[in-house]
Amino acid sequence: MLWLYLLTRISLWITAYCARWLFPPNPEAHNPGPALTPFEHWDWGHFLHIARDGYFPDHGGPWQSHWDNREAFFPGFPLLLRAVHTVLPNWTTAGLLISLTAGAVTVVALARITRLHLPETGAGRRVALIFLVSPCAIFLAVGYTESLFLAFALPAWLAAQRHHWPLATTLAALATTVRVSGLFLAAALALQFLLSLRTRCDLRSLPWFTLPALPAALYSWYLHAHTGDWLAWKHAQERGWYRTFHTPWEAWANTWHNAFDHTQTTGYAFMFQAELAAMIVGLLLLGLLTRQRRWPEALYIALNLYALGTSYWYMSIPRATLLWWPLWIALASKSLRIPRFHSAYLCLTTPLTAAFALTFLTGRWAG
Fold this sequence. Notes:
Distance between the termini: 30 Å
Strand content: under 5%
Number of domains: 2
Shape: globular
Number of helices: 16
Order of helices and strands: HHHHHHHHHHHHHHHH
Structural class: mainly alpha
Number of strands: 0
Radius of gyration: 20 Å
Helix content: 55-70%
């Protein structure tokens, strides 16, 4: 399984090498530029600036006209990046090492969770392959938060299945330092705990479920101390990424308009189309989990879809699918029962995986 993980990492590094030579920013360039340049796009700049300069350098903040809204990003990844940077002087290398290590933990944990649901031989390897060649797999290999979040969230879920509630909530708290989605995970863990009381009425672990909210509370307190705004991280998302509240049908209509009504350039329109497709996948997954009465997982997916589906338009939903571990387990189950489905999945997703990887590595990603 880790061998498969390493092979897919190598394939993405080869893609990055090719992208640097074939798609330079200047078509007339005779030098491809630094080797790590393909990994230094979009949100990576925010994480780098936070880790290097802090949230409010030189007394800057949201009161400035050209502020970059960096407080929208939770501090877990930048803090770890700063720590690793003390050992690895190159910031990008430090970020890649974090994601490489966290990704390995993620794959192992995902395989172990899968074995709880699928007794078939090879289920762990199958889910790992499906996950690692998913369309947005590039974000597991760059200096982003997906790998680190999953490295905490999936062991937390695994611990919950074994009723190790103190460990589960502690890991969920660490996940919350990375992304606000950790609160959605905490809600699912709490529901799992309540359901377990039907067979094991033990309330001694109940106080532990306040722990995942602590990182978010401390971060809000820190931002309030600097900006006077308890929800500064949310308001930064609204300013920078149009995450103001809209009804689900308004968000769908706005996304559809930008995807198909020729108001955007083709690259942006394609990404809006991907957002719509990812939302449909999420709704189908929610329906499946509800039908199977897997209520904790259904709650986790529902909270994710609500948060992502009530902005002005959809943004980052394809990336968010990486965090939906029930999706990859469901696909692995289907592929084990229907071999043709496995072949079809690989044939259909591999081109998308390559296209999305090239889109990010060449600086053209838009969502």
